[in-house]
Amino acid sequence: MPAHLTNYLIMLPLLAWIVWRRVSRQFGRQPIRRKRMIARIAVFAILGSLLALGGLHKVELGEGLLGGMLLGGAIGLLGLRLTRFEVDPLRGDCYVPNPWFGAVLSVLLLGRLAWRLLVVWPQLQQASAAVAPSAGQPMGYASSPLTMLVIGLLVGYYIVYFSGLLIHHRRFQRAQLRTTAA
User: Fold this and answer.
1) What are the C-alpha distances in Å from 103 to residues 93, 100, 107, 162?
2) How confident is the model at residue 147 (pLDDT cuts 50, 70, 90)?
3) How does DSSP assign 8-24, residue by residue?
4) For 101-140, how does the pLDDT look when each residue is reduced to its tens digit (9 = 90+)?
C-alpha cells in the first residue's frame, strides 16, 4: 500500500471518532470539567495557530481561517447565551448546551471534508498509479479557503464557547454560594 494512503487510513477513522464524540456531547446534561475545558481551549488555540501558519504562504487560506474564527466566535457567544447551568445531584455542576449549534457546525465540517475528499480522490488515484500530480494542483484538505473557513468556524466556536462556559460557571458558583448563604 502506498505510504500516502496510509495517512488517510489512520486519519479518517480518527476524525470520525473525534466528530462522533463531539456531536454526542451536544445533547443532554454535560458535567463541567474545568481541566478538560482548559485543555480543549489550549488544543484549539494551538490548532488555530498552526493552521494560521499555512496562511503565511497562501493569503487566501489565512483569510478563510480568520473569517471562520471570527464568525465561529460570534456563534459561540450566541450558543453560550442559550446554554443553561444546572446542579445535578450525581454529577454536580452541569451545563445543558443548545444542541443545534455544535451539531450543525460538526455536520458542516464533515460535509466539507467529505466534499474535499471527493475532489482530491482523483489526485490520490493518480498518485497511487505512480503518476506525480502536477505542481499547479495542490493536494490535501488545506488547499481550499472554504475548508479553512469551516475549520476556523469550529476553532473559533469552541475557544469562545469553552472560555465562556468557564467564566459563566464561576459566576454560577458564586450565585449558588450567595443563595445558600442567605
Assistant:
1) 23, 5, 6, 15
2) confident
3) HHHHHHHHHHHHHHHHH
4) 777 877 787 787 777 777 777 776 666 555 444 444 444 5
DSSP letter (8 states) at residue 131: P
Give the Cα separation of 93 and 172 in Å (integer).
9
Q: Is residue 104 within 8 Å of 157, Cβ to Cβ?
A: no
CA–CA separation, 144 vs 118, rounded Å? Answer: 13
10 Å CB burial of residue 67 (0-12, 13-18, 19+) is middle
Q: How far apart (Å, rounded) are the C-alpha atoms in residues 182 and 173?
A: 14
Cα separations in angstroms, 108 against 32, 51, 147: 26, 18, 10
Chain-centroid distance, C-alpha 170:
24
Cα–Cα dist 137/119, whole Å? 11
Cross-strand pairs, 84: 96
- 124, burial (CB in 10 Å: exposed 0-12, middle 13-18, buried 19+): middle
Q: Please say whether the beta carbons of 32 and 165 come within 8 A.
A: yes
Helix (H) or strand (E) holding 2: none
Identity of residue 131:
V
Question: What Å distances lie between residue 140 and 46, 52, 115, 133, CA to CA?
Answer: 20, 16, 12, 12
